[in-house]
Amino acid sequence: MAIAAPMAAGAATPIWCLLLPVTAVSVHATSAATGITATAIGVAAGVGLFIAGAGSIAWLAAAAIAGVGLLAAASQRRGEERDDALRRRENELAGVRAELRDLRSQHVAGAEGRLVALTRANQALQSEVERGRRVLEEALDASRTKTSFLLKISHELRTPLNAIVGYTELLLEHPEEAEPDELQADLTRILGAAHELLALIDSVLDLARLEAGKFELHIEEFALHDLVHECVAAVTPLAERGRNQLKLKLSRELGTIRSDRTRLRQVLMQLLGNACKFTHGGLVELRVEPMATPTGAVYLLSVRDNGIGIDPAYLPRLFTPFSQADDSPTRRFGGLGVGLALCRHYCMLLGGEINAESELGKGSVFRVQVPATARDPREAPVLVSAF
């Protein structure tokens, strides 16, 4: 026992010294459990061998066992380091993939934005091209209208001027030989041609004033019955020349009307004149009657004929200035094509309206509605006119 104690003490000293590096390595190991396990196994083996009397062999065995544990811990640490490296690489790759996705998204968004911008630019360009085309068409239409107007007005002005000049020259050549009856007839023809020329010029000037917004109405109260009879009497010679029969239908309830007498007379004269002009050996009827509407009392004036009628394709342009159903150079009937346009303007200025129905070869009917009491346009906030 005296010998065993020092041996035990001597054997225990390297075992406890061996535990220090084992513990230090185990602390630095990636897996603490592996280092601790290796140390515990080494201690247990050394203690067991020491108790069994193995002596110095005990600490060698403990060291061997601890070394194996430490090698296992080191191997596990390297494996975990590799796993950590792999995870870092995966994270880096995930970051790269995310950046690539962001770049792709930005590229796609940029491409879509450029595509949208190009589409909008293309639409704007198409709109500009379409607007330019419309402007060009309007300019060409205006040019054609101007050319047609100049051709028409030159012809229409020459006709009464030729009559005035011709009869005047005849009277000047042999004034002493002219009989009183012949002189009166020639002067009457000159006066008629002068009135025709004056009416033509007045129509063009009225249209120009309407377009410029400088047209004025003169509202007054007058008997509609008297105005209608005056217009019928004035158009009777024209109806007789075309062998037409005039028919007048008046309501017994006709009274006074507050409107522009001159403009309303122009409307009636234009409609009756057109009916007699485009009807031969037929019937021209004027019907006048009062009507009640939601906006107040109005008068309905209808002019019906059984003449040549109007092509339905032309009806939308019927009230357009300088437009005629027969616009060819060889047209049978004269005129500038401003009469119905002026009628539409006058009716609108008087607070009424005008419309037409027609069938080619069967005649036409024009209806005019005017309020019984027209408002003075000077009292209205807005002066309305349309083309």
What can you tell me about this protein's structure?
Helix content is 63%, strand content 13%. With 387 residues, it is an alpha+beta fold. Among the domains are: 142-211, Helix Hairpins, CATH 1.10.287; 219-379, 2-Layer Sandwich (Heat Shock Protein 90). The strands form two sheets. Strands 2-4-5-7-6 form a five-stranded mixed beta sheet, with helices on one face. The longest helix has 118 residues, at 56-173. Residues 1-31 and 381-387 have low confidence and may be disordered. Residues 86-142 form a coiled coil.
| Gyration radius, rounded | 57 Å
CATH topology of the domain at 219-379: Heat Shock Protein 90
Q: Please tell me what the overall shape is.
A: rod-shaped
The CATH superfamily of the domain at 219-379 turns out to be Histidine kinase-like ATPase, C-terminal domain
Count of runs of 4 or more consecutive helical residues: 7
List the helices and strands and how they pair.
Blueprint: H1 4-28, H2 32-51, H3 56-173, H4 180-212, E1 220-223, H5 224-241, E2 245-250, E3 256-259, H6 261-277, E4 283-293, E5 296-305, H7 339-349, E6 353-359, E7 363-371
Parallel strand pairs: 2-4
Antiparallel strand pairs: 1-3, 4-5, 5-7, 6-7
Catalytic activity: ATP + protein L-histidine = ADP + protein N-phospho-L-histidine
Pfam family, one: HATPase_c
Domain Histidine kinase: 152-374
Entry summary:
This protein has 387 residues and is an alpha+beta fold. It has helices at 4-28, 32-51, 56-173, 180-212, 224-241, 261-277, 339-349; strands at residues 220-223, 245-250, 256-259, 283-293, 296-305, 353-359, 363-371.
